[in-house]
Amino acid sequence: MKEMLIILFSAILVDNFVLSKFLGICPFLGVSTNLKSAMGMSLAVISVIEIATALTWPIFYFLLEPNNLSYMQTVIFILVIAALVQIIETILKKSIPSLYRALGVYLPLITTNCAVLGVTVLNITKSYNFLQSMVNSLGAGVGFMLAMFLFAGVRSKVDHADVPKALKGLPITLISASLVSLSFFGFKGLIEKLFA
Amino acid sequence: MSPKKQVPLIKEFSKGIIRENPILRLILGTCPTLALTTSVENGVGMGIAATFVLLGSNLVIAALRKVIPDKVRIPAFITVIAGFVTIVQLLMQTYLPDLNKALGIYIPLITVNCIILARAEMFASKNTVFRSILDALGMGVGYTLAMFIMSSIREIIGNGTFLGMAVPVLSNSPMMILILPPGGFFIFGILVASAQKISETIDKRSGGQDRDFCATAMPDSPACHLCGGCNFGAGGLNKEINMGLNNGKTAGRSDAQ
Hints:
Helices cover 73% and strands 0% of the residues of chain A. Chain A has helices spanning 2-14, 25-30, 35-64, 73-95, 97-103, 107-110, 114-125, 130-158, 170-183, 190-195.
C-alpha cells in the first residue's frame, strides 16, 4: 500500500509528467486557455491513459516478450493507442452523446499526446507490475490535470497583462510555465518525509 | 501536380532552417526540445536521431503517397514512423549505448513527435520523393540547429561546461536553474521571442509583406489539429476546440428544449 502511495504521489507532485518530465507539453500549452477546456482535456487524458495501460501491459508481457518481439514495443503501443482512441470516440458518439460532447473534441488530440505513449513505455522500462503500472498511470493523468488546472488559472491572468510585443503569445506563456514549474520544486523531498 | 512545383529545389531545403524552423517558428515537438537540451551532446544526439526518422518516413511516405488510401493515411503514417523509430532505437542500443541511456524514453517518443507527422502530412504526402528528401534534410538541419543553440545556452550557463569541457569563469558558479525544468521553459520562451523578433525584422526589410506564416506552412489538416503546433496564440487548435465546445453547448441547449 505504502509503495503504491509513493508511486502515486511521485507521479503527481515530485516527477510531475508535464512540468518535470516534459510529456504532453503540446496540449498543456495549447488547451490550457480556459478552465473548461483544461478540465475536458485532462479527463479525456486520464481515461485514455488508464485504458491504454490496461491494454499495453498485458500485450507486452503475454504477447511480445514470450515471442522475443519486445523490439516491436513502440510500433504496437502506438497502434494500440491510436485504435483505442478511435474506438472510444465511436462508442461515446453512439452510446453516451452527452459525454461525447464534453470530451469528444479532445479525443483525436490524444493520439499524439506523448504523455500517453510515454507512460505506457515507462511502465515497461521501470518493470512495474500490473497494479503498479495502473497506479503510475493514474498519477501521471492526475498530475497532468493538476498542471493544466494551475496553468489555466495563471494564463487567464497573463492574457490580460500588457507584455512587450515580441513576448506576446507563446513566449510569455512559456515563461509563465517556467514559474509554475518552479513552484513544483517545493514538493522535492516530500515523498521521503511523508513515507520515511 | 501542385503549385509547389514552382518552388526552386534549394528553397525546399533552406526553408526548414530559418523561415519555417520546426522548433522556433512552427513550435512543433516541444517535449524533447525542453527535456533534452540540458547538454549539447543530448540535444544534438536527439536532433540527429529525429532527422534520421524524418528522412526515412518522408522518403517512404512520398514513395507510397499514391498507394495509401486517404482515409487511413494518419494511422499508416504513424506505422511508418514507428518503424523507423524502432530502427533508430535498435541502432542506438548497439552502437551508442550511453547516448541511448541519456535520451531514454524520448527515443520511442519520436513516434509522436509532431514535426515528423506534420511533415508527412503537409509535405511528403503531396510531393515527389526527391523534394521530400530535401524537405526532410532541411527540417532536420533546422531542428538540430535549434536544439544545438538551446542546449549550448543551457549547458554553458547552467552547468559551466560545453560538450563536457569546463568553460572558464562560468564553471565556478553555474546557474543550476537553467538545466532544471523551469530553465528549459524560460530559455525556450526567450528563444521563441527572439525568433519572432528576428523574422519580423527580416520581413520588414524585404518589403514588409506581413505573411501569415502559419497559414502557408500549416493549412487546415488533421495532423495540425492533432499536434496543435504553430499557432498557439491565434486560433489554430484553440479555435477548433472552442468551436467544438460551442457546438456542444448549443446542441445541449437544443436537447434541453
